[in-house]
Amino acid sequence: MNLNNIKNQFPIFSKKINGKSLVYLDSSNSSQKPVNVLNKLDEFYRHEFSNVGRSIHFLAVKATNKYDETRASIKNFINAKSKDEIIFTKNATESINLVASTFGQQYVNEGDEILITELEHHSNYVPWHYLRKLKGAVIKFAPINKDGDIEIDKFQKLITSKTKIIGITHISNVTGTIVPVKEIVEIAHKKNIPVLIDGCQGAPHLKIDVQDIDCDFYVMSAHKIYGPTGVGILYGKKKWLENLPPYIGGGGMINEVKKEKITYASLPTKYEAGTMPTAEVIAFNESIKFMNSIGIENLMNHEKELTNYALEKLKKMNSVKLVGNPKNKAGVISFTIKGIHPHDIATILDEDGVAIRAGQHCCQILHEKLNLSATARASFGVYNTKEDIDILCKAIENCRKVFESK
Amino acid sequence: MDLKELYQDIILDHGKSPRNFGKCKGYSHKGKGHNPLCGDQVEVYLKLNSNQKVEDLTFEGSGCAISIASTSIMTELVKGKSFESAKKIIDEFLNMIKNTKEINSTELNEDQKTKIMSLSGVKQYPMRVKCATLGWHTLISAMDKKKEEVNTEVTD
Predict the structure, then answer these.
(1) pLDDT tens for residues B82-122?
(2) Which residue among A66, A157, A368, A380 is buried most deeply as judged by most CB within 10 Å?
(3) Residue A160 has pLDDT above 80, yes or no
């Protein structure tokens, strides 16, 4: 598979930004969409639309089957044991809220502990904070070192007899740290503590095997995996999902409804109340087909090569300071430039058609720890090329010129 | 869009060497502002004398060139003005940054108008308007003796 021509599959790259070709380096935020995903959305709404799981007419049956095909594809994509372990949500954030809320209701009491890390995105902290407020639980933060790696021995020491659940990211969306999740799950399981992995940055860039990792929950957002917005995925081991209480109540998720009593549907429908983002779920199957057509190994090699190339070039630029230096790093590079605020960097780079993100990337805890008020971030997707990195470096030079002019 | 219009020399100058930076002695009003999206923080200190005149106006904080320059220019223009006149200047500035290219001011002289209009290019960058207005909203909060912090995601 020739990855050099992959941009052709993404219509957005034919668009000019400020008269320049688009260099999109914001895939950690959200990825662009290949044409097969866009076509599927259009085709479904135009020719195949119906709600799923309810009516029995021709279109409804077809749509229901397609909807379930995506579930089966995801099951294979992350190697889950059963299709019933794949729940559709709005996004990864909702998936984490679902677990924090239902697991918290059932298993967390006053004084119990939830262990997360300093790397976490707000979406893997705020839902646990709700639980802290509601139940009087305690949240502990496993520290990172200056390189942005979790210190496993310190992590281990924070596990106590009161630890009820552990939440960790698979890849940091700031430092690009690839967290040794399998090792952490092993440590946790020795003490019978379940682990939730925030796979938002993991799923688009790594080979995911939830049975091999042995995690209890794994969450993802389709829009970061070349798919539509509005679709999140929660993987949960059956033993948990079957026993946890339902989350959002309404149509579709019930079994029997009486005036005095309600029973709930079995998995996965138990957690899919109301009309779901049907077209988006169906189109998301095309994203997985796209990923499979490239081959996850090819994709990983491509992104590794890009990351190494970018790191090498950026390290040569004296004004650029890289944030973190983790042992295993994914294609997420945060940096600062002496004397230029990240927001100004982002505006000036944009003028050259280079789209990066600036700010705290929903990680205030991490920025505070690293003593940074904000950072600029370039993050890669399958469509990026070495030429994109060259343009980024030139744009950074240009940025310095703008600020040096005074 | 032209970057030169946004990053004019005067803005780069104030961004790098902000005027009236620090905490002034004997301030009577204090305000705190925060932009949670980018992490900008600003604290404004105002000393009002017995004649209701802004005797001193300073600020501290961290932020992008636009936010620091805008706050720095604000302190220069508002210092020495009466309380009422200061309020008018703030309104005139906010109106310019959101609606008009020129500043309509009854309170500022031509030089001061030129200075403040160096910020009008921000209007073409909607995502950056909050950077330019953070210090000004924080000054309003200080003058009104509001206790809570100004938050760009809560104010308009």
Answers:
(1) 999 999 999 999 999 988 878 888 889 999 999 999 999 89
(2) A380
(3) yes
Distance between CA atoms of A63 and A285, rounded to whole angstroms? Answer: 13
- A299 and A286 together in one domain: no
> Does A398 touch chain B if contact means CB atoms closer than 8 Å?
no
Band (pLDDT 50/70/90 cuts) for residue B1 is low
Whether pLDDT at B38 is above 80: no
Q: Using alpha carbons only, give the angle A382, B128, A91 rounded to the nearest 5 degrees.
A: 45
Do B64 and A406 count as a contact with CB atoms less than 8 A apart? Answer: no
Position A80 confidence tier, pLDDT thresholds 50, 70, 90: very high
Contact A382, A303 (CB under 8 A): yes
Residue B63 pLDDT class (50, 70, 90 cuts): very high
Last residue of a domain, one of A253, A276, A292: A292
Residue A318 forms part of a structural domain: yes
| Cβ–Cβ under 8 Å, residues A113 and A162 | yes
- In B, minimum Cα distance to A17 occurs at B1
Q: What is the band of A54 on the pLDDT scale with cuts at 50, 70, 90?
A: confident
Whether B65 sits inside 8 A of A405 (CB atoms) is: no
Q: Among residues A292, A313, A329, which one ends one of the domains? A: A292
* B41 touches A at CB < 8 Å: yes
- Complex-level ipTM: 0.86
What is the average pLDDT across B50-76?
Answer: 95
Residue that wins the pLDDT comparison between A392 and A360: A392
Is A52 in contact with A63 (CB distance < 8 Å)? yes
Which of the residues A200, A362, A363, A393 is marked catalytic? A362
Residue A348 confidence (pLDDT): 94
> Which residues 312-351 of chain A have a CB within 8 Å of chain B?
339-344, 347-348, 351
- Tokens representing A225 are 């995996």
Number of domains in chain A: 2
Type of residue at A159 = I
What is residue A149's DSSP assignment? -
Give the fold, CATH level 3, of B3-151: Sufe protein. Chain: A (3.90.1010)
Dist CA B39 CA B151 (whole Å): 11
- When CB atoms are compared, the residue of B9, B13, B39 closest to A373 is B39
Decide if A373 and B13 are in contact by the 8 Å CB cutoff. Answer: no
| A405/B contact by beta carbon, under 8 A | yes
Q: Is A343's CB within 8 Å of B64's CB?
A: yes
* Rounded-to-integer distance, Cα A381 and Cα A370, Å: 26
Residue A362 designated active-site: yes
Chain B contact probe: residue of A122, A337, A347 with most B CBs at under 10 A: A347
In a domain, A32, yes or no: no
Q: Are strands A254-257 and A163-169 parallel, antiparallel or unpaired?
A: unpaired
Name the pTM for this structure: 0.93
